[in-house]
C-alpha cells in the first residue's frame, strides 16, 4: 500500500483531522501528517508546538508520522517517498478550492495522486478557525479537539479558571 501525506497547518489539530488520519491509517502503510509553516495564516501555535501536539495526539498510531515542512508540497511528498496527497472535504464549498489544488499538484507532479476523504458526520462542521474563535472568546472546545489540544488552547488563550 502506498504512503499518504496529509498536509495542513493544523492550528490546532481537531477531531475532524484525527478522524481522517485514523481512517487513512487503515488504508495506507504510512500516513505522514505534514505540518505546514504557513505564516500567512498567523497561527495561534508556532510550528514546533503544532508538531508536538500532533505527535502527542497520534502517539499510539504506529503508522502515523508527524513532520514539519516549509517547501512546495509536491517536493515534500516526493522527498518522503509519498504516493498520495490526502485532503479532507467538509462541505461542497471546500471542493472548488481543493479541486484546483489537486489539479495544480497533478500538473507539477503527474505521478502523485490526490485522495479526498470526508470526515465523519459529527466532525463535518469542525474547523481550526472556528475552534480558535471559540477558544479566544473563552468557550469550551473540548468536544472539538483532543484533550492535549484542549489543554494547550486553554493555556494559550488563558481560559483556565
Folded structure, characterized:
- The chain has 6 helices and 5 strands.
- By secondary structure, it is α/β, with parallel strands linked by helices.
- The protein is 40% helix and 18% strand.
- It has one domain (1-155): HUPs (Rossmann fold), CATH 3.40.50.
- Strands 3-2-1-4-5 form a 5-stranded parallel beta sheet, sandwiched between helices.
Rg over alpha carbons: 15 Å
CATH superfamily: HUPs
Main sheet strand line-up: 3-2-1-4-5
Q: Helicity range of the residues?
A: 25-40%
Output the structural class. alpha/beta
Our count of helices gives 6
Give the total of beta strands. 5
Q: Mind describing the biggest β-sheet?
A: 5 strands, parallel
Assign the CATH topology.
Answer: Rossmann fold
Principal-axes shape call: globular
Please specify the SSE layout and strand pairing.
Layout: E1 3-8, H1 15-24, E2 30-36, H2 47-57, E3 64-69, H3 73-79, E4 84-88, H4 92-108, E5 113-117, H5 128-136, H6 147-156
Parallel strand pairs: 1-2, 1-4, 2-3, 4-5
Kindly summarize this structure in a few lines.
Its EC number is 2.7.7.3. It comes from endosymbiont of Ridgeia piscesae. Helices cover 40% and strands 18% of the residues.
Amino acid at each position: 500500500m502506498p504512503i499518504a501525506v496529509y498536509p495542513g497547518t493544523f492550528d490546532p489539530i481537531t477531531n475532524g483531522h484525527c478522524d481522517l488520519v485514523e481512517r487513512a491509517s487503515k488504508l495506507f502503510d504510512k500516513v505522514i501528517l505534514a505540518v505546514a509553516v504557513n505564516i500567512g495564516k498567523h497561527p495561534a501555535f508556532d510550528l514546533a508546538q503544532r508538531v508536538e501536539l500532533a505527535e502527542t495526539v497520534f502517539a499510539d498510531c504506529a503508522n502515523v508520522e508527524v513532520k514539519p515542512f516549509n517547501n512546495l508540497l509536491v517536493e515534500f511528498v516526493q522527498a518522503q517517498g509519498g504516493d498520495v496527497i490526502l485532503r479532507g472535504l467538509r462541505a461542497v464549498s471546500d471542493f472548488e478550492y481543493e479541486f484546483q489544488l489537486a489539479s495544480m499538484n497533478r500538473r507539477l507532479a503527474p505521478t502523485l495522486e490526490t485522495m479526498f476523504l470526508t470526515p465523519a458526520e459529527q466532525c463535518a462542521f469542525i474547523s481550526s478557525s472556528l475552534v480558535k474563535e471559540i477558544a479566544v472568546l473563552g468557550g469550551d472546545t473540548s468536544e472539538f479537539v483532543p484533550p492535549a489540544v484542549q489543554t494547550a488552547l486553554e493555556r494559550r488563550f488563558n481560559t483556565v479558571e
